[in-house]
Amino acid sequence: MPDHPQTSEELLRALAELEDRLKLYEAVFERLDVGIHVIDQNMTTVLYNKAMGMFENEDPDEILGRLFLDVLSHFRCNEESSTLLRVLRSGETLPDVKQSYINSSGRMITTINSNQPLIIDGKQAGALEIAKDVTFIQTMADKVLELRTQISRRGRRVGASPGAGAVSPRVRYCFKDILGRSPVMLDLLQQARRIAQTSSGVLIYGETGTGKELFAQSIHAASPRADKPFIDVNCAALPSQLLEGLLFGSVKGGFTDAQDRAGLFEQAHRGTLLLDEINSMNLDLQSKLLRVLQEKRLRRLGGDTGIDVDVRVIAIMNKPPEEAIRNRELRQDLYYRLSVAGLHIPPLRERPGDIPIFVDHFLAKFAETMGRAVRAVDKEVGAVFRRHPWPGNVRQLEHVIEGALNLAEPEDDVLRLEHLPMFFRPSSPAGRPVGPERDAPPPAGFASGGDIRQRLAQEEKQSIRQALEAAAGNITRAAVRLGITRQLLQYKIKKYGLRSEMSV
To answer: Which residue has the higher pLDDT, 282 or 432?
Structure first.
């Protein structure tokens, strides 16, 4: 298309192309699952998509062209509380602001809003608001807090302190449940038992499926706080704007629809708070968490009164802290505060001596529940298990055993290679060997003292590639073949740059 159409025919063609492009943009705009609201310098709404209309129970056609102040009158908010007007007037950017309001149907809505000025030719032409509806997540978080508060109150009413030596009902595991008996695990258990006797913060890191939460619960169960609350929260499950209220609580009137509510820190007073995937928490909230840990005092959202808290925090990560710090996922000062006592749970591939112990345990567990006679694995299966890299660690081994028992006949007393997922058979569907034969010499990287981690990573990458090929690029089927979760496989695909081998 010429930059400057000269003839009427060129002009009509250019207009037609622009109209087609505009229709394309409009189609995309209306299919976004986030709300979009744009006002110009005169505070008139010029863009308002279907998603925003669903949040606020408004017809976009009725909102377009209206003054924003008229629209505000429908909701329980005003010029001072509107972040969109604040951005229009100040020119500042306000990312990830939590807002709660009642829409025109009387329903309470909670959104996470990002607001920014719209600059055209160096001048501010308006303001943009992008809203994500988190009402359901907020409702679930509120219910969790309310239920935990009720449990705590009932316990106090009936004098239900478990008493000396009793363990918080939230804890299911203790050290005797940790099965590993390799030298590295025995040393780790000894360290963990010593750590349990203190009140210092603990940072536990290890790959997915290594048993980090099992260690965290065991530390609490063996500590002087064993009869006090043990509360866990997954930091990746909630937006940080909601997680802050969940952790620290809120004060009635502190913000729209806020209620007097104790957060998880208060509910875990004198007990233990487990923060899973702490590196998913944004850095601003990590800073507030650090202040609470240092001062042992917090303020509820919207409040101005300090509340003393005595809580032991155990944090869990699935990657090395140094890597998280380097990637700006973890504050260095928070790391130092939490890692007063630190534990690294080694992956299963680094402690192959533990594999037979886990195999026996999972065989006994599933054979009983599934009505199978299997009580052992044959030598070939044992060899395959010993050389497999186990990217999903103990959890993956558990899933593989369960899956294999599903394929075993009720009268089978030994688990054989034919019972394992296809990926564990002697050759891949393409006919290539999955790994060296049992009596073959070790790979060159091992024999020459090469980089073991690099060699294992190469084998894992090859294993994932073969599974993707066998599954025609389908992630779900490939994950089943590998015996790991779809989420973990997606992470590994991204890690090894294998996206080109996935199906769209």
So the answer is: 282
Q: What is the dihedral of CA 476, 207, 433, 398, to 10 degrees?
A: -70
Q: Which of 245, 244, 269, 238 is nearest to 259 (CA)?
A: 245
Among the residues of 249-326, which ranges form H helices? 264-267, 283-295, 321-326
DSSP designation for 443: P
Q: Which residues make beta-bridge pairs with 461?
A: none
DSSP letters along 195-219, please?
HHTS---EEEE--TTS-HHHHHHHH
Q: How far apart are CA 238 and CA 141, in angstroms?
A: 8
Distance CA(293)–CA(314), nearest Å, equals 11
Q: Using CA atoms, how far apart are residues 253 and 304, in angstroms rounded to an integer?
A: 12
Q: Is 201 left (phi over 0), alpha (psi -120 to 50) or beta?
A: beta
Nearest in space to 107 (alpha carbons), one of 135, 79, 77: 135
What is the bridge-based pairing of β-strands 123-133 and 108-120?
Answer: antiparallel
On the question of pLDDT at 274 being above 70, the answer is yes
Q: Mapping DSSP to helix (H, G, I), strand (E, B) and coil, where does residue 99 land?
A: strand
Return the ∠ at Cα 340 (arms to 335 and 345), rounded to 5°: 80
Q: Which whole-number Å values give the CA distances from 267 to 62, 150, 262, 274, in the listed order?
A: 46, 11, 7, 12
Instruction: Return the structure tokens found at 389.
Output: 């890299």
Q: How far is CA 152 from the centre of its chain?
A: 27
pLDDT digits (tens, 9 = 90+) for 176-222: 999 988 999 999 999 999 999 999 999 999 999 999 999 999 999 99
For 76-133, how does the pLDDT look when each residue is reduced to its tens digit (9 = 90+)? 556 667 888 889 888 899 888 877 777 766 677 788 888 899 998 888 889 999 888 8
Instruction: Supply the Cα-derived Rg of the chain in whole angstroms.
Output: 28
Q: How far is CA 28 from the centre of its chain?
A: 28
DSSP-derived letter for residue 442 is P
β-pairing, 108-120 with 94-102?
antiparallel
**Residue 85 parent element (H or E):** helix 83-90
